[in-house]
Design a protein that fits this description.
- The chain is mostly helical.
- The protein contains two helices and no strands.
- The radius of gyration is 21 Å and the shape is elongated.
Length: 62
């Protein structure tokens, strides 16, 4: 029998872990794909895309 002082490992814990793993896998996929497309994990660092930003924000890329 399980000890009453221990935390139960129920279905909500399992579902939370599955959702967190799916989220982390999605973020990792986006980082890898962005690196392949833009040469950086952050697509806003790509110099080719800086022309798409408003003129006031281009100075922030400096």
């Amino acid at each position: 029998m399980a000890d009453k002082a221990s935390v139960p490992f129920n279905i909500y814990t399992v579902l939370t872990l599955i959702a967190m793993l799916a989220l982390l896998a999605g973020v990792a996929y986006l980082i890898v794909r962005s690196n392949a497309l833009f040469g950086s994990w952050n697509p806003m660092d790509a110099k080719d895309l800086s022309v798409l930003l408003p003129a006031g924000m281009q100075s922030l890329l400096g």
